[in-house]
Here is the input.
Amino acid sequence: MTALLEISHVAKRFNGVVALDGVSARVGRATITAVIGPNGSGKTSLLNVVTGFYEADRGSVRFNGTEIAGRPPHWIARLGLARTFQHIRLFEGFSVFDNVHVAAERRGTSHARRRAEQALEVVGLAAVGRQQADALPYGHKRRLEIARALATEPEILILDEPAAGMNATEKIELGELLFTIRDLGKTILLVEHDMDLVMGISDYVIALNFGCTLAAGAPAAVRQDPQVIEAYLGRPEAADA
Ligand SMILES: Nc1ncnc2c1ncn2[C@@H]1O[C@H](COP(=O)(O)OP(=O)(O)OP(=O)(O)O)[C@@H](O)[C@H]1O
Here is the structure.
C-alpha cells in the first residue's frame, strides 16, 4: 500500500548551512511516526518543508499522491495536514472552547462548533471549555494545541516536540492521547526528544543526523542501530533529554 506521506530526496540549505541533505521517508496511514536526531539535525526543517513553511531546494513531498512541495501552508493544510509548533501558540485571552472553535472554522463555519466540541472531547478538555486558555496547567495547554489541530479534521497531525516542558505524568498522558488519536484512524508525525516517549509510542522511527537519514524502522531496531547510538543516543546530553 502506498504511504500517506512520501518524502523523497528533500534538500534545504540556508546560506550554506545544510539543514536537509536529501532526506527520504515514508509515513504510513494510521501510524505514529517519530523523527529523532541531535539538535540541528534538521527535524524541524523537515516538518517545515512538509507543511509548506519552508520551500525545499529540491525533492518531492507527496501527500495522498498529490505533490505538495512548494505549495503554501494554507493550501497544504486544506488537504488535511495540521500541525503544532515547538512553542505554544494559543490565544491566551480566549476561552479554551473559543481557541478550538477559531481553528475549527478554518475548515468552514458549518458544523464548526461540533468539530470544536469533538476535538475537546478527544483531548479530555471538554469539561473546561469555558475557562480561559492561559489559566490551564501547562500540560493542558499542550493538549489544547492538539485539539486546535484536530478541529480542522486533518488526516495527518504533525507535532513538533509535543512533550517539551512536560513532567513525567503529563508525558504518560500525552502518549495515551496519541494512541487514542491514532486509533481514531489519524496519522501522527512527530518530532520529539524524549526517547522513552518515542520508543514507547512509535510504530516507526526516522533518525536524522546532519540533514541525512541515519536509520529508519521499528523503534527497537533504530534504538540498536550503531550509527544512531553514536550520533545521538550515546551522547551524554541526549541521556537527560
Ligand atoms: N530559518 C532558518 N534560517 C537559517 N538557518 C536555519 C533555519 N532553520 C533551520 N536552520 C538551520 O538548519 C539546521 C537544522 O535546523 P533544525 O531546526 O531543522 O534542526 P532540529 O533538528 O529541529 O534542531 P532542534 O532539535 O534543536 O530543534 C540548523 O543548522 C539550523 O541552524
